[in-house]
């Protein structure tokens, strides 16, 4: 083999010599030219398409031959030809010596390449019978490295490899999910599996450097996960998957403490799908194929992690497919997380018993809503899509127009209805009901009917007050209130963080509670922590400043009972000196 290498080296040296002798004098002559514009040009280039070293130049031929340096080399030039004998171009040149050296170099390379392939084929034939041994040895090497990284030893080599200890990872506690006596199972039924991971961090971050955001995951059933774009949903799924894989193998896990089932029969992580043109399948077809395999293999002893389910098809039907998949996994009783931006899934009559709603939270920093990457209870329907688009450089005109389109269609889900002022109390009386209103709302639930009535009355009362505060001539000049509906187990959107807001809680006993706050999320959590209020729903709207929020709060406390609503905190309005005048509703429209 050394002989072939030597031939390649000799051919390369010969090519270098030919190029230096035939091209460099021309280059030196061109560089010596003093013409600033329109003078001679030339350079030595490698023509990749033709695998050749040629001279490329123009206007380098002297007008008068005077035997000056480089003229001899110019006379030796000829147009370069491709492999078919056609001229490459008017600016490409070569010489007979360069072409001979180039041909010799290619021949030496071809001989060396042929010899290498011959040796590799012979080696492959010899190793054919030892392939299984080599694969096994390779796997053992990987396992040995992982074990060394988890070993605590005074040996210098092992101490260097003790990466898990350095990163502050911990060994897991493996839980037995069934009861055994004398080696025999005595408890029948589904697995009572649970997984508790305290201060879990993404495995790709170094805990010793303190850069990771940690989350505590206590899982006894399926999580239905929501959150804003960039909120950490996919990272959480990957982190939980890695923790489970490392744990059941007996390896260290990036967390403070870990308790997991000692043996999952399957750990499934389904991330985004791509299309397969070769198979004639779209990305949604690929996803459904993978979901079919997932559902057929999942048992109560499985861990299932699905990221952004059914996002590759039409929203309404994709939402229903996603809901049916969640119901199936809930019935199986497996552990897992299903993340989604299909918020319509929470409006479906899902038949689930154990599924828990979780979300990734956000906070308000320097005038911007930013994700915290923390796992919390509840539902988050705020996507931060506009903020993400703006942060990634989408033109302002596109992003602003998108907001306009959104507010024109999606914000006001229940349009306000104009009625006569004298009919206000009768039309919105909670106890009496209204046949016309019932027919308009159709199949809506009683809770939705009450929410709609409250929203219309609150809008009329507050718009009248805002008209007075802003010294406007008519309520039509007041900007419509943008109500935010917060359902059972839902969290308020990140846009409410750090902003004054007025809210109305619709209690299960049909009584209302009116309040104002700068921390809507904390206030709602405090209400839900009380007995009997876990299923309460809220409507809220943002206002400019705490002073206005306080005035509107007291105004609503004093005026809503006069419209037939029952309040749980009516006494809170008696200590205020505003909002008690009946004339506030004169000429109000809803």
Description:
This protein is α/β, with parallel strands linked by helices and 590 residues long. The chain has helices at 2-22, 24-31, 71-76, 96-127, 131-149, 156-161, 163-166, 233-248, 283-297, 315-332, 385-391, 396-411, 424-427, 435-441, 446-469, 520-528, 546-559, and strands at residues 41-47, 52-58, 78-79, 92-94, 173-175, 180-181, 184-185, 195-200, 215-219, 222-226, 257-261, 266-270, 302-306, 335-339, 356-365, 368-377, 484-486, 501-506, 512-517, 537-542. The strands form 5 sheets. Strands 12-13-14-10-15-16 form a 6-stranded mixed beta sheet, sandwiched between helices. Strands 1-2-4-3 form a 4-stranded antiparallel beta sheet. The chain has a 4-stranded mixed beta sheet with strand order 5-11-8-9, covered by helices on one side. Helix 15 (446-469) crosses helix 17 (546-559). The N and C termini lie far apart (93 Å). Residues 179-183, 186-191, 412-444 and 577-590 have low confidence and may be disordered.
């Amino acid at each position: 083999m050394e002989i072939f290498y030597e031939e390649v080296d000799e051919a390369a040296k010969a090519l270098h010599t030919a190029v230096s002798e035939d091209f460099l004098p021309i280059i030196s002559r061109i560089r010596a030219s003093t013409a600033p514009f329109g003078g001679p040009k030339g350079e030595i280039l490698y023509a990749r398409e033709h695998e050749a070293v040629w001279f490329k130049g123009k206007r380098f031929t002297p007008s008068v031959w005077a035997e000056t340096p480089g003229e001899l080399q110019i006379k030796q030039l000829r147009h370069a030809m491709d492999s078919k004998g056609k001229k490459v171009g008017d600016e490409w040149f070569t010489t007979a010596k360069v072409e001979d050296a180039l041909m010799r170099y290619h021949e030496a390379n071809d001989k060396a390449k042929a010899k290498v392939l011959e040796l590799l084929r012979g080696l492959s034939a010899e190793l054919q019978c030892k392939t299984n041994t080599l694969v096994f040895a390779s796997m053992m090497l990987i396992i040995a490295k992982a074990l060394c990284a988890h070993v605590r030893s005074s040996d210098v080599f092992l101490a260097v490899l003790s990466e898990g200890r350095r990163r502050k990872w911990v060994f897991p506690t493996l839980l037995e999910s069934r009861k055994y006596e004398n080696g025999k199972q005595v408890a029948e039924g589904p697995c009572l599996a649970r997984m508790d991971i305290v201060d879990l961090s993404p495995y790709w971050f170094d805990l010793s450097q303190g850069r990771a955001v940690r989350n505590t995951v206590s899982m006894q059933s399926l999580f239905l996960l929501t959150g804003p774009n960039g909120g950490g949903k996919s990272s959480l799924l990957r982190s939980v998957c890695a923790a489970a894989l490392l744990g059941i193998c007996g390896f260290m896990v990036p967390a403070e403490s870990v308790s997991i089932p000692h043996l999952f029969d399957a750990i499934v992580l389904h991330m985004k799908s791509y299309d397969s043109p070769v198979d004639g399948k779209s990305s949604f077809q690929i996803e459904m194929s993978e979901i079919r395999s997932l559902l057929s293999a999942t048992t109560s002893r499985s861990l299932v992690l699905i990221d952004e389910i059914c996002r590759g098809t039409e929203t309404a039907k994709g939402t229903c497919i996603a809901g049916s998949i969640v119901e199936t996994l809930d019935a199986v009783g497996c552990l897992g997380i299903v993340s989604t931006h299909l918020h319509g899934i929470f409006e479906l009559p899902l038949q689930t018993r154990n599924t828990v709603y979780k979300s990734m939270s956000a906070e308000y920093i320097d005038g911007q809503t930013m994700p915290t990457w923390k796992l919390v209870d509840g539902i988050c329907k705020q996507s931060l899509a506009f903020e993400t688009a703006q942060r990634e450089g989408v033109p302002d005109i596109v992003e602003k127009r998108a907001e306009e389109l959104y507010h024109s269609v999606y914000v006001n889900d229940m349009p306000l209805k104009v009625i006569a002022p004298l009919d206000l109390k009768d039309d919105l009386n909670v106890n009496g009901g209204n046949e016309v209103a019932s027919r308009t709302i159709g199949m809506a639930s009683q809770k939705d009917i009450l929410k709609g009535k409250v929203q219309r009355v609150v809008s009329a009362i507050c718009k009248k007050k805002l008209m007075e505060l802003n010294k406007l001539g008519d309520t039509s000049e007041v900007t419509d209130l943008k109500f935010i509906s917060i359902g059972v187990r839902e969290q308020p959107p990140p846009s409410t963080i750090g902003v004054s807001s007025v809210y109305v809680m619709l209690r299960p006993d049909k009584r209302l509670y009116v309040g104002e706050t700068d921390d809507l999320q904390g206030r709602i959590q405090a209400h839900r922590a009380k007995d009997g209020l876990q299923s309460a729903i809220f409507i809220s709207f943002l206002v400019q400043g705490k002073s206005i929020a306080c005035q509107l709060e007291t105004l609503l406390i004093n005026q809503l009972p006069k419209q037939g609503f029952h309040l749980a905190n009516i006494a809170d309005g008696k200590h205020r000196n505003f909002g008690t005048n009946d004339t506030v509703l004169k000429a109000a429209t809803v």
